[in-house]
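Incident log, support desk, overnight shift.

02:14 A customer reports that sequence design results differ from what the structure should imply. Their input is reproduced verbatim below. On-call engineer (initials T.W.) acknowledged and began investigating.
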């Protein structure tokens, strides 16, 4: 089952996150993309944890409901997995053709990831050839088979046909490349902040340099606000969504306290990038995911890291009618980054 994204004609992208189910139906005609349907369905807290359904029936019901509410008929979907059961890693191999590389990686994958070979579903992409000592650079994607199977079964339980199972990080990069041009030799950090985790992907000239999931997301902000402000989980969620409740100044101070921890985690990833020799700096950060909309977070990251930070807009080069989105494009766009990236794949 293919894991690495290719931009092709599109169908339906389904992003199953810890906070909500997001559906994007997209039409690809004559080199242009048009969103024909968008649906978002919130999940009950704890329904999905670290990408794994804890309340499978509730998740299946939510998926069915988002299809019913949007009226999307096409049941061929492109979806994605993420979390600790998925590893994306660059490796060096001796120069060889793609068929031989597949044999070598299939046999030796457990050398590069902390799973047994029998547990793995593996895919790869050759990034660069002709490197020193007659080697090539390969992007290895390894997912635990039971995680892939579980996700496929979840989709089938919701009466869907899983056309492609991708990886969240590649969907984010696909959405970015659809809407932005790479400046030569510039290094970009694509940081997608979800409820339970944050993915940090660093790319340059279209090539991924580094990818890492950290267990830090919107839930971390909720719990931090609970401790600092003495409020309930529901009140903290409401405060992050901008619903009046706690005093705005107190909310911003609590966000800043927790946000500094996120900045530290991001900086560690940048330090690893520098130490690996892949890049000396990051030129710009693009934030996406629901957590990217947390008040004051973008300016905090820019200040602490000394790097320009933008909210990613995955709708820049896509046609759509605003009534389809059901919200202001600026406010909803970052949350749809993964779903849009998935919908750029051939789903039917």
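02:41 Re-run completed on a clean worker. Output:
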């Amino acid at each position: 089952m293919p894991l690495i994204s290719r931009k092709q004609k599109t169908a339906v992208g389904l992003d199953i996150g810890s906070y909500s189910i997001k559906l994007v139906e997209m039409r690809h005609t004559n080199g242009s993309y048009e969103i024909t349907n968008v649906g978002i369905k919130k999940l009950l807290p704890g329904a999905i944890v670290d990408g794994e359904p804890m309340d499978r029936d509730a998740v299946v019901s939510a998926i069915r409901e988002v299809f019913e509410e949007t009226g999307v008929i096409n049941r061929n979907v492109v979806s994605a997995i993420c979390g600790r059961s998925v590893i994306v890693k660059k490796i060096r191999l001796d120069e060889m053709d793609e068929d031989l590389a597949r044999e070598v990686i299939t046999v030796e994958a457990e050398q590069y990831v902390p799973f047994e070979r029998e547990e793995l579903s593996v895919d790869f992409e050759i990034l660069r050839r002709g490197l020193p000592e007659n080697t090539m650079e390969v992007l290895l994607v390894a997912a635990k088979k039971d995680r892939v199977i579980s996700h496929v079964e979840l989709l089938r339980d919701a009466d869907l046909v899983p056309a492609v199972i991708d990886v969240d990080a590649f969907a984010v990069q696909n959405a970015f490349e659809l809407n932005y041009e790479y400046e030569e030799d510039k290094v970009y950090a694509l940081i997608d902040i979800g409820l339970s985790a944050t993915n940090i992907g660093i790319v340059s000239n279209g090539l991924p340099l580094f990818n890492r999931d950290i267990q830090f997301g919107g839930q971390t902000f909720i719990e931090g606000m609970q401790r600092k402000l003495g409020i309930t989980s529901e009140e903290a969620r409401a405060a992050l969504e901008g619903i009046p409740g706690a005093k705005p100044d107190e909310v911003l101070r609590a966000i800043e306290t927790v946000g500094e921890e996120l900045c530290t985690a991001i900086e560690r990833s940048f330090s690893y990038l520098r130490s690996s020799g892949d890049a000396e700096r990051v030129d710009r950060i693009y934030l996406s995911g629901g957590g990217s909309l947390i008040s004051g977070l973008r300016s905090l990251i820019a200040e602490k890291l000394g790097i320009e930070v933008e909210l990613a807009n995955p709708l820049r080069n896509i046609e759509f009618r605003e009534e389809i989105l059901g919200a202001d494009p600026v406010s909803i766009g970052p949350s749809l980054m993964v779903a849009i990236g998935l919908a750029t794949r051939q789903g039917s």
